[in-house]
Amino acid sequence: MGWGIYVHIPFCRRKCFYCDFPSYAGREDAMERYAHALCCEIEIAAQGITCPPPWGREIIADGGGGRTLLPSGRGKASTVYVGGGTPTALPQPLLTGILHTLKEKMPIREDAEWTVEVNPGTVDRAYLEGLFSCGVTRLSFGVQSFSDTLLRRIGRIHTAQQAREALRLARDAGFRNLSLDLIYGLPGQTLRDLRESVAEAAALGAEHISIYGLQLEEGTVFARQQEQGRLELPDEELADAMYGYITEELPRLGYLRYEISNFAKPGYESRHNLGYWQDVPYLGLGAAAHSYWQGERRANPAALDAYMEAVESGTRPAALEEPATREIRMEEFCFLALRTAKGIEKEAFREKFGCTMKSIYQDGIARMKEKGLLAEENGYLHLTALGMKYGNWVFGEFLL
Ligand code: SF4
After folding, report:
1. Hey, what domains does the chain have and what are their CATH numbers?
2. Nearest CA owner, ligand 1 atom 8
3. Does ligand 1 come within 6 angstroms of the Cβ of 142?
């Protein structure tokens, strides 16, 4: 696996009631200017990349369940992920213009995975065909539920029927790798609602399903409703039953759990997201995007206007973040890798930090193994099924 490119599109038609992602509703006026600024940033960033890159190391899957670390300098970007916000809230020519600029300016492999996030309420046949002919290989649909009542209750702009139709149109357009996001633990959601949504996602043939438990985030409509005592969430018992259902049913339907919240048919794991969890460098472009590059972390301005002004003034918008201490880097490395079913490759930890995991985490690992939350296999330390459920306890043991 080479490195990744993330592109952030910070626009949505309307803010969903649970969402605190950096995105703006009602800023159609800024879309053209933003797309132009983004293309300028792509050009600026591309000039700073020597290809093959002289930095760091590159991780290459060896196809045998393990991986091989090779000196870098071999590769171009192997994944591009356009997320948001709602990339497809942009008029199609603006989005395809951004994709073409990436292709033209950035060193990207021929066989790269190109993902675009799609809101089913924003696309039609022509839009999806346009993305396919631009070389997009994978679409990630934010569906969240197939219940119209729930979709209205959480502020989505689309109906269940629009989601079905969008997936069908994507197939017709030629896409063979479709992902679908669902949420459980929604206000008023029953186990039956969830069952129906999971069954429908599978029946539509999605190759990949991400399923997240609802989190109440500050500043959202749901957080306000909660404060006012107006939000009725499933109780602990029901939330537990939902979690149990998801983790049993999806594997039964052929979706392997390769990360805490992600399930895929074999071979359809998100290569881009695997990169985040496996310490692979990435370049973030667009407002609020983060980069992890040559061991440094950078962040672009989150505010739309601040981002556009920075790029228009010809400066690189990505500000260097304070370098993380060695301890923090160790913690992050472990937290991210532990999210995956494979877990932490102990040898990769030793290579990166020059010491064994045992020398740092011996007691914590022993405690978690004793409780049945962690296990070790073929040089990897990974969460057990129980550990995936109580991940936060385990992560606590990796804090230094
Ligand atoms: S469409 Fe996605 S990014 Fe936009 S408000 Fe809804 S959940 Fe957030």
Report:
1. 3-277 (3.80.30.20), 325-400 (1.10.10.920)
2. 19
3. yes
Tokens 């600029």 map to which residue? 101
Q: pLDDT for 96-106, tens place per residue?
A: 999 999 999 99
Contact between 31 and 97 (Cβ < 8 Å):
no
Residue 292 tokens read as 């992890």
Ligand 1: nearest atom to the Cα of 142: 2
Query: What are the pLDDT digits (tens) for 117-176?
Result: 999 999 999 999 999 999 999 999 999 999 999 999 999 999 999 999 999 999 999 999
Residue with the smallest CA separation from ligand 1 atom 2 is 85
**Would the CB of 15 count as within 6 Å of ligand 1?**
yes
User: Which band of pLDDT confidence, cut at 50, 70 and 90, is reported for residue 54?
Assistant: very low
Is the CB of residue 262 less than 8 Å from the CB of residue 269? yes
- pLDDT, tens digit (0-9, with 9 covering 90-100), for 196-221: 999 999 999 999 999 999 999 999 99
Q: Report how far ligand 1's centroid is from the alpha carbon of 103 (Å).
A: 26
- pLDDT tens digits for 18-27? 999 999 999 9
What is the whole-number distance in angstroms between the Cα of residue 11 and the centre of ligand 1?
9
SS3 letters across the chain? CCEEEEEEECEECCCCCCCCCCCEECCHHHHHHHHHHHHHHHHHHHHCCCCCCCCCEEEEECCCCCEEEEECCCCCEEEEEEEECCHHHCCHHHHHHHHHHHHHHCCEEEEEEEEEEECHHHCCHHHHHHHHHCCCCEEEEEEECCCHHHHHHCCCCCCHHHHHHHHHHHHHHCCCCEEEEEEECCCCCCHHHHHHHHHHHHHCCCCEEEEEECCCCCCCHHHHHHHCCCCCCCCHHHHHHHHHHHHHHHHHCCCEEEECCEEECCCCCCHHHHHHHCCCCEEEECCCCEEEECCEEEECCCCHHHHHHHHHCCCCCCEECCCCCHHHHHHHHHHHHHCECCCEEHHHHHHHHCCCHHHHHHHHHHHHHHCCCEEEECCEEEECHHHHHCHHHHHHHCCC
Q: pLDDT > 90: what percent of the chain? A: 88
**Residue 71 clears pLDDT 90, i.e. is over it:** no
